[in-house]
Design a protein that fits this description.
363 residues, mainly alpha, 72% helix
């Protein structure tokens, strides 16, 4: 039964996530091409199946070969996924591809299950909105396949997969900085519009209960937020520069897939820590919490700096040879050195600014 085949295929994808012992290797471009071809076939067959099994006039004899072909192609998709291995193709690429494949197979299973339920019901009861469920699920399957085949679907390689994830994190980091900017501007606006003389503050007791009406930063909190703000700005700039230079398709340095995967791990960690740091800046602030998160942030930054080194190898005999080949190669070598210098300077600047917020006992 096709519904059973989809469930089995999903189980196979999950098993593939857990067990990757000595998989067969294959060219990634071939695997991606086969996946796209299979998705197109599933798209076409699901359309024909919806027409053949329309609740108003189902043709079960016409649907049988369609269901058989869908089962075969679903198995083919799982086979393509089974050819992937983390060393050759990258863990991030495999994770993202599995997520897309599982979504499509689950949607296909839901569509087939809808027709099974229709077949088991009294024809007179399959009308109205219930009779239109198959159209909704067919459209959902089509949307997933269209997305999988688009620019935001299955990436072409592990670097592209990491770049897609990096872009999402970049936008979230920028949102965090924008939030701190808003807090600072609101606090400065309140200070300018509502200056208070000493002794004019009225304490109504609600602040102690966490229900105070004043949600703006006080003088000390504003100063603390202004000290954290340039750190966050530099982190966003650093993250963006990695996206543009290191993860660019024109990056001159060849690195293994695991280096990209480890780099993305640090992007996720950076995003989580930065989010926690921004959260500590909301009033009322706990200075110790702010300092603690800055210290944790520096730990992530240090690891990120270390993992970036593989993308900027030190000078060796190869650089000397490149300098002797041509003007173009000399420019390439210099470009690599300038990029590394920029990153080192940025990391040093973040470290310097953070050291002002980390007590000596924590540093």
């Amino acid at each position: 039964m096709p519904d059973y085949t989809c469930t089995t295929a999903l189980s196979a994808v999950d098993a593939r996530d857990r067990e990757r012992s000595q998989p067969e290797t294959s060219d990634l471009s071939v695997i991606c091409k086969d996946l796209h071809s299979l998705f197109s076939l599933i798209y076409s067959l699901s359309t024909k199946l919806s027409l053949a099994l329309s609740p108003s006039s189902p043709s079960y004899s016409a649907s049988l070969p369609l269901l058989q072909d869908l089962a075969k192609h679903a198995s083919g998709v799982v086979y393509c996924v089974s050819l992937l291995n983390e060393v050759q193709h990258g863990a991030t690429f495999i994770k993202d591809t599995n997520k897309i494949v599982k979504g499509i197979l689950e949607s296909l299973r839901d569509l087939v299950q809808t027709f099974i339920e229709f077949a088991a019901c009294d024809p007179s009861s399959t009308s109205g909105m219930a009779g239109e469920d198959y159209l909704v699920r067919t459209a959902a399957l089509h949307d997933l396949i269209t997305t999988a085949q688009g620019s935001n679907g299955i990436p072409k390689d592990n670097r592209s997969a990491v770049r897609q994830n990096w872009s999402v994190n970049k936008a979230t980091l920028e949102d965090g900085v924008s939030e701190v900017t808003r807090m600072i501007e609101e606090a400065e606006g309140d200070d300018a519009n509502h200056p208070t003389a000493d002794g004019d503050d009225f304490n109504d007791g609600w602040d102690e209960l966490g229900l105070g009406t004043n949600t703006s930063l006080n003088k000390d909190e504003l100063a603390r937020s202004k000290s954290v703000y340039p750190i966050l700005r530099l982190i966003v700039l650093l993250h963006k520069r990695i996206f543009l230079d290191v993860l660019s398709s024109t990056c001159p340095v060849s690195v293994p897939n695991v280096a990209y995967d480890l780099l993305l791990e640090q992007s996720h960690s950076l995003l989580a820590v930065a989010d926690e740091l921004v959260a500590t800046l909301y009033p009322p602030q706990d200075p110790d919490s702010v300092y603690k998160e800055v210290a944790v942030l520096m730990t992530v930054i240090t690891t990120l700096h270390t993992r970036l080194q593989v993308f900027f190898p030190v000078d060796d005999g190869l650089d000397v040879e490149l300098n002797q080949l041509s003007i173009q190669d000399t420019s390439l070598s210099k470009s690599r050195k300038v990029n590394k210098r920029w990153f080192d300077t940025c990391f040093d600047q973040i470290s310097r600014l953070s050291s002002n917020l980390i007590p000596p006992s924590d540093g």
